Amino acid sequence: MSYTILIADDSAIVRTMVRKALAMAGLDLGEVHEAANGKEALAILGRTWIDLVFADINMPEMNGAELVRAMKADPALAATPVVVVSSEQTQARIEEMKRWGAKAYVKKPFRPEQFRDVIEEILGAKGERHGL
Amino acid sequence: MASELSSELLAQCLVRTLEEAAFVFAEPTGDPPPFEGEVIEARVTYSGGHSGELLLASPHGLAATLAANLLGEDEGGASVTGDDFDALGELLNMVVGSLVLDLFGPEAGCKLGLPRVKRVSAQEYGRELGKAHAVATLVEEEGRRIDLSAFITAGAP
Fold first, then answer.
1. Mutate which of B45, B101, B104, B107 to test chain A, going by most A C-beta atoms within 10 A?
2. Min CA distance, A44 vs chain B (Å)?
3. pTM for the whole structure
4. Per-residue confidence (pLDDT) for residue A131, from 0 to 100
5. CATH number of the domain within which A116 lies
6. Is the distance from CB of A21 to CB of A117 less than 8 angstroms?
7. In whole angstroms, what is the distance from residue A131 CA to residue A25 CA?
8. How many domains does chain A have?
9. Would B1 be classed as within a structural domain?
10. Which of B20, B67, B101 sits opposite A13 (nearest CB)?
11. For residue B23, is it within any domain?
12. Which has more confidence, B154 or B54?
């Protein structure tokens, strides 16, 4: 089974880095959608089935926290897991994001193994791995 | 545990981030080569125990290397073109995340801004540097310089 992924980050470099790390982590990637902010992410979520969202916190127009809250408020999106990928590392910020409904947190800079661990935890994707 | 804002702390954060994220190995220097021509500078605001702004500056060539390394691609590849601004902004994003943790501790509530990146003349950059509260100047293996400086805008450092 392949997974449809959405990566929301205002940095094109980071979106590419996440995409590569996911591939290296052995996730069976299907379609990978990209958004430069929470607003674009919500638009994609509104028209496409997404299995897993990777979202930055600090983004223009609509940040990651607002994105998570908007998804939780929408019954059609509330169950879609969100992994926060951010350089913000304080415990206070991580707890805040989890309280709002983020499933996991990956700190930048990241390694593919970190993505593998959260994917296994969230999607039970152990049997889907091809690499590492 | 919180640390004081200093040139040493800035250097530690920058060295660590360059190594972990971009596989660039750099060390502090007291005798940096001058910037020539244009400098790419990235700025980001932060607030916690105090408010301030970080400024990361490098020559274009080093920013291009950073972009290539972040992407794991050969320097000069098509997908690298134009990514030097993005790379410097994202590296600064990583640096500030690490720095506020060191400055204010893990339990502190901190706010970070969005990185802003632009090209300035070496002279303009030099004038700005004179206003910094703390400056770390590093030189990487090929002798190229990268600076991280901090400006306090509110509250005691």
1. B101
2. 23
3. 0.89
4. 40
5. 3.40.50.2300
6. no
7. 6
8. 1
9. no
10. B67
11. yes
12. B54
Look at chain A and count its residues. 132
Q: Tell me the sheet residues that pair with A32.
A: A5
Domain that holds residue A120: 11-47+59-79+97-127
Contact yes or no for A91 and B106 at CB 8 A: yes
CA separation, residue A88 to residues A102, B15, B77 (Å): 14, 18, 30
B54-92: per-residue pLDDT in tens?
999 999 999 999 999 998 876 655 444 568 899 999 999
- How many contacts does A have with B, using Cβ atoms within 8 A? 70
- Count CB-CB contacts under 10 A for residue B104: 20
- Domain containing residue B39: CATH number: 3.40.1550.10
Find the helix or strand (DSSP H, E) in which A99 lies: helix A91-99
Q: Does A89 touch chain B (CB under 8 A)?
A: yes
CB of A1 less than 8 A from some CB of B? no
pLDDT by 10s per residue, chain A, length 132: 788 999 999 999 999 999 999 988 888 889 999 999 999 999 999 999 999 999 999 999 999 999 999 999 999 999 999 999 999 888 888 888 888 889 999 999 998 889 988 888 888 754 444 443
Chain B residues in contact with A108 by the CB 8 A cut-off are 21, 90, 93-94, 97
